[in-house]
Design a protein that fits this description.
Strand order of the largest sheet: 5-14-3-4-12-9-10-7-6-13
Structural class: alpha+beta
Order of helices and strands: HEEEEHEEEEEEEEHEE
Low-confidence stretches: 32-50, 55-77
Shape: globular
Number of domains: 1
Helix content: 25-40%
CATH superfamily: Cyclophilin-like
Radius of gyration: 26 Å
CATH class: Mainly Beta
CATH architecture: Beta Barrel
Distance between the termini: 104 Å
Mean pLDDT: 80
Largest sheet: 10 strands, antiparallel
């Protein structure tokens, strides 16, 4: 019957439309899932990139050929670099333990004074004292500024590349279990391995949370004066305008003096 045929055709058309709509909805859900997954990966990867750069591999010796003259770094700014001294082993903890210390970091952007926790992080402070007294940090740049999610100025690599170190490594001390690093915190940078602390350190200019999954990062002191210096450098941003790179305002460590309190 014509009416029956029309009904059947209408049913088929309806079923086809429903199928198309279902397929379209399924594609949309898949696309949303893919986009969500990609965003998650990007966010995680972004955090990993920030952190792995914040936490350098001090075992790298690629800086051996660095020159002693200013050179353009990856973000286009110029900063002093030099071939770092290399030491066979870290100094003994006894150099710093059971005491607190005062440090004055003279930089091209202004002086920064610090209190060092030899009682809480003796190996880290012993290393910092030893390297400071030996002139390891003199005429070196603070090569990295982060301005999004992580708020730190990173220094302590004579090569200015983020991969230089003193030739020795040691483990984590005094890392906060909650991953919180308040403004003014002085902490060590490292690689993915918890035992890759060396010479690079960072100063926190704004409250920052860092992951604790690999043990956190050694807090070995705090800024007691000069936080405004860090914040002024941070306010100027990076040389290339990104959230992570060399500071637009170059910061050179001229010298560090350390005295027991």
């Amino acid at each position: 019957m014509p009416i029956e045929r029309d009904r059947e055709r209408a049913k088929r058309r309806y079923a086809k439309r429903q199928k198309n709509l279902a397929e379209r909805a399924a594609r949309k859900r898949r696309n949303q899932q893919v986009i969500g997954a990609v965003l998650a990966v990007v966010l995680v990867a972004g955090g990993v990139v920030l952190l792995t750069q914040l936490l350098p591999d001090d075992s790298s010796s690629s800086a051996a050929g660095a020159t002693s003259s200013p050179t353009a770094n990856a973000s286009g700014s110029t900063a002093p670099t030099k071939t770092p001294k290399s030491y066979p082993s870290a100094p003994a903890k006894s150099l710093a333990e059971n005491a607190t210390w005062n440090a004055t970091v003279k930089t091209s952007a202004g002086d920064i004074t610090m209190e060092l926790y030899g009682d809480k992080a003796p190996q880290t402070v012993a290393s910092f004292i030893f390297l400071s007294k030996d002139g390891f940090y003199d005429d070196t740049s603070c090569h990295r500024l982060t301005t999004s999610g992580i708020y730190v100025l990173q220094c302590g690599d004579p090569t200015g590349t983020g991969s230089g170190g003193p030739g020795y490594q040691y483990g984590i001390e005094n890392a906060p279990k909650d991953g919180k690093y308040p403004a003014g915190t002085l902490a060590m940078a490292r690689g993915d391995d918890p035992n890759t602390n060396g010479s690079q350190f960072f100063m926190v200019y704004k409250d920052t949370d860092l992951p604790t999954t690999t043990g956190g990062y050694s807090i070995f002191g705090k800024v007691t004066n000069g936080l405004d210096v860090l914040q002024t450098v941070a306010a100027a941003g990076t040389a290339d305008g990104s959230a992570d790179g060399a500071p637009k305002t170059p910061v050179t460590i001229e010298s560090i003096t350390v005295e027991k309190k």
